[in-house]
Specification:
The protein is α+β, with helices and mostly antiparallel strands. Helix content is 30%, strand content 22%. The relative contact order is 0.13. The protein has helices at 7-16, 24-44, 49-52, 68-80, 147-150, 219-229, 244-254, 277-290, 321-331; strands at 86-91, 98-99, 109-117, 128-136, 157-165, 169-174, 179-185, 190-195, 206-208, 237-238, 257-260, 275-276, 294-296, 313-314, 316-319. It has an 8-stranded mixed β-sheet with strand order 2-1-3-4-5-6-7-8, with helices on both faces. The protein has a 5-stranded mixed β-sheet with strand order 10-9-11-15-13, sandwiched between helices. The structure holds 2,6-di-O-phosphono-beta-D-fructofuranose (FDP).
């Protein structure tokens, strides 16, 4: 029988391997996992939102129904604002940096997150998820966090990961060395190590991109996708859920390539791509790279890019190294 390792034991074990560690990061991640369990419980009730109502509403007849991404945002904020581990936070749901309330101590880390990625899929029961990135602060300890603390490149993260609320709830985490996956056992309410040391396949035969945008891509991206659809290139499968977390999770486990390139369309220009650097592309790219894959904007590593804005968008290509390199060859006209 395999050994059962809870996320708590895993975090304590990881801390023990670093004698210099103070336990701050362990405490931060432990608090986060509690927020994920709360969100998982709410996501399971998503279809009942209008029927039974959830915390934060005014009444049962749906006068004010809090949207699930707002609920997820509140859970994370309420779990993380008082632990003394963070100096500030940044979220997809908030336009500005989220300060730690004055009455609580300011810690040495920064948390950036997308509380519920893919939320346009919630109403049709498709997997959604939470993405998070943790950086060590740059400014003096004990003070309020600033933009300087938040706007850091992906390669400076001390930990990152995501939780996918799918047929089961799974936490995928890296603290820099390797990538491990934990599945929530709903009966005991604990994340248990189920996918130790995840490695992305060197090559896969699945491509994942919104082909509805085909006409709006640059020529080289179009040539690449046409190339992999040619039977002479092998038998590729197309899979696009439209929930980044689910598409990248599948890419991580099965291999292949996930793309969200620049689009140039009159009424909906994403000349810099659609996905957000700080709390979507960068932490997902960190996981992919720590698992042996490549994550790039097309021009540079996603992890090298320093955000200039909390909600900055970037073009994204990530996945198995051989697939991503092949895409880059097309993108740069080498093929
Ligand atoms: P959503 O709009 O549902 O929140 O960045 C958000 C995101 O989903 C990603 O999860 C997903 O990969 C992408 O947008 C889907 O965009 P398209 O609908 O343009 O394909």
């Amino acid at each position: 029988m395999p050994k059962v390792i809870s996320v708590q034991r895993y975090l304590i074990g990881t801390q023990a391997a670093h004698p210099e560690a103070t336990g701050d990061l362990t405490g931060l991640l432990w608090d986060l996992t509690l927020a994920f369990k709360q969100i998982a419980a709410k996501v399971r009730k998503a279809g009942l939102l209008d029927v039974i109502g959830l915390a934060g509403e005014e009444n049962e007849s749906g006068d004010v129904v809090t949207k699930l991404d707002r609920i997820a945002q509140d859970h994370i904020f309420r779990m993380m604002d008082h632990g003394g581990h963070l100096c500030c936070m940044a979220s997809e749901e908030e336009p500005d940096i989220i300060p730690i309330p004055a009455r609580y101590p300011k810690g040495k880390y920064v948390l950036s997150y997308d509380p519920l990625d893919g939320s346009s899929n919630i109403d049709v029961n498709v997997s959604v998820g939470t993405i998070f990135a943790i950086h060590r602060r740059k400014t003096a300890e004990g003070t309020d966090g600033t933009a300087e603390d938040v706007l850091q490149a992906g390669h400076d993260m001390v930990a990152a990961g995501y939780v996918i609320y799918g047929s089961s709830t799974m936490l995928v985490l890296s603290m820099g060395n390797q990538v491990d996956g934990f599945t929530l056992d709903p009966e005991v309410g604990e994340f248990l190590l189920s996918h130790p040391h995840i490695r992305i396949p060197r090559r896969g035969n699945i491509y994942s991109v919104n082909e509805g945008n085909h006409a709006w891509w640059d020529d080289n991206t179009r040539r690449y996708v046409d190339f992999i659809k040619d039977p002479a290139s092998g038998s590729y499968k197309s899979r696009y859920i439209g929930s980044m977390i689910a598409d990248v999770h599948r890419t991580l486990l099965y291999g292949g390539v996930f793309l969200y390139p620049r689009t140039f369309k009159d009424d909906k220009v994403h000349g810099e791509g659609k996905l957000r650097l700080l709390y979507e592309a960068s932490p997902m790219g960190y996981i992919v790279e720590k698992a042996g894959g490549i994550a790039t904007t097309g021009d540079e590593s996603l992890l090298d890019l320093e955000p200039t804005d909390l909600h900055q968008r970037v073009p994204v290509a990530m996945g198995s190294p051989e697939n991503v390199n092949e895409y880059l060859d097309f993108l740069h006209g080498r093929r």
